[in-house]
Input
Amino acid sequence: MAVLIYYITIPFIYLLSLLPFPILYLFSDFLYILLFRVLGYRKNVVLNNLRNAFPNKTEIEIQFICKQYYHYLCDLFLETFKTLTISKSTMLKHCYFSAESLTVLNKLASENKNIILVLGHLGNWEWAGNTFSLLCKYQLYVIYHPISNARFDKLMYKMRTRFGTKLIQMKQAYKEMLLNKNTLNATAFIADQTPSAQNAYWTQFLNQETPVFKGTEVIAKKLNYPVVYAFVKKVKRGYYEIFVDILCANPTDTIDGEISEMHTRKLEIDIIKQPQNWLWSHKRWKHKKPVNL
Output
C-alpha cells in the first residue's frame, strides 16, 4: 500500500515543485482551508502549545497566531517540495544571508575553523541549508532522522542534498564529525526536537519545563568547535533572511549546560519575534521532567 501511495504521489509532488510561486501560494491557500478549517490537523496541539507558551496573550491573540501558523505551515510544506526543481539563482533570491552574517562565516572559514551550527524549526530551515551550501566555503553536514517510509526518505534526501549539503544520521554524528575534522566543514543541529526525558538538559523554555538535546553541547565541547546560532527570519511570503551569531568561540571554557542554555534562550527570543513561524504542531512538551532531576 505504501508503495502505491508513493508512486501515485510522486508525479504530483514534482508538478507542485514546477509551479510558479504565485500559483504555488494559491494552492497553499487552498491547503490551509483543508488543513485548518476542514481537517483541523493537530489543532488542539497547536492551541495548547500556544496557550502554555504565551499565558499573557488573550484568546483572540492566540487564535490569530494559530491561523497565521497554519498559513505558514502550508507554505513551508510546498516550499520544501519546490527544492526539487528550483534554480540556484531563484533559491538565493528567496533565501539569503544578511551581509554581516556572511562576513562572520567567511571570517571563520578563513581561520580554518570547523563550526557547529545550531538552529530551530523556525522560518524555512530547509531553504537555509540550501543557501548555506551555495554561498559558504564550508561543506555543510546536517544531522537528521531518517523517515520511516524508505521511498519518501529517499525523496527528502534528494531534496536536502541537491545543492551540496550532506546528511549525517543522529546516531553517527560524533563518529562522522571526527572523520571529517581535517576538512573545512560546518555541522548543523536542529536543537528544538524532543529528547528522552532522562538524558536531556532541562530548562524553562516558552514558560514551560523543557528537555533540550545535550548532544550539541557535548560534541561542541569534545571537539572545541565554535558554536554559531542561526535565525531564519521570514521577511515576507516566500522570502527569508538568515542571521548568525557566534554563541561560543571556545566551548571547552564553558560549564555544563551553558551552551544548551545559550542557544535555547536565543531561539526563545526569535520565536517571540515571529511566533507564527515556529513548528507549533510538533509535540514539543510530551515529556515531563523526572522528579530525580
Q: What stands out?
A: The chain has eleven helices and nine strands. The first helix runs from residue 2 to 18.
